[in-house]
Amino acid sequence: MLEGQIVEGRGGLYTVRDAQGIGYVLRAKKKFRRERMTPLVGDRVRFTPGIGEEHGWLEEILPRDSVCLRPPVANITLLAAVIAAAPAPDWLLVDKLLLGARMQGMRAVLVVNKCDLTPEAAESALRDYAGADVPVICVSAARREGLDVLRELLHGETVCFAGQSGVGKSTLLNALLGLQLQTGEISRIERGKHTTRHASLIACGDIRVMDTPGFSLLEFEEVMDPVELMEYYPEFAPYAGMCRFQPCYHGSEPGCAVQRAMQEGKISAPRLGRYRELLEKARQVWRERYD
What we know:
3 domains, Rossmann fold, 7 helices, single chain
């Protein structure tokens, strides 16, 4: 058997490239369905090549370092959450992306595209995520601005660019890596058109990038003890153990040090508000985990 990595999957067929860059088209064996295991773009696999015009067979999926369900990809090391001035940024989606990345052990970067149009999105990002331990990179794919800084962060990484449709992910990748991915314009009601239909893994030098379908909704996938949620918010760490009650969820408890820090302007009020929204969702999922 040979080893390689899935770079694309559609219609029950998977394109796998080996270490020499040779591509193979494979079918997944029925055992994956029995094991309820779905091969994902980014999976490292063992496979048997086909003979002649026949497709080969995907034999084994090697252990994953990380997995993202929406979009469905595996072994990402860096998640780039992309927003833009238009469509209007979905900051709750950004927080969910950052949360999911940290829960999977991925690093994350927040990319603000179309900074040449208006500074508001960049200003909000820099303000809200000042203490969140996530770099905020302002770029303009159209004007080729800020790309060198972003490109430097991508070296040696397997990167997933994720975010709402229409924020310019494919345009950004084209400008960043000299690709020719299909792009689309923002619709008249400022909802992005879905120009990328399938996830694919693209290698460009030592940078590997996932081109994924855009989306505007992301459901809370993980069942977790709600008290653990705060651990994924680095800006809360300086106030650990300083609240009146222990444990403090940093929700509506009196004497909350995080609440006090927000009132003093040390933590973003919108960011804390969205955290509390996710906290309530986590509590609901936790209560219903055995239903």
